[in-house]
Amino acid sequence: MSFLTILALAFGMSMDAFAAAIAQGAAIGTPTRRGTLRTAAVFGSVEALTPLIGWAIGSVAQRYIADWDHWIAFSLLLLLGLRMIYGALQPEQPAGEQSAEAKPESGQSGRRPPSPLMLVAIAFATSIDSMIVGVGLAFLEVNILLTALTIGLATTIMAALGLRLGSLLGSAIGKRAEILGSLILIGIGTLILAEHLHFL
Question: What is the pTM for the complete model shown?
Answer without folding.
Answer: 0.71
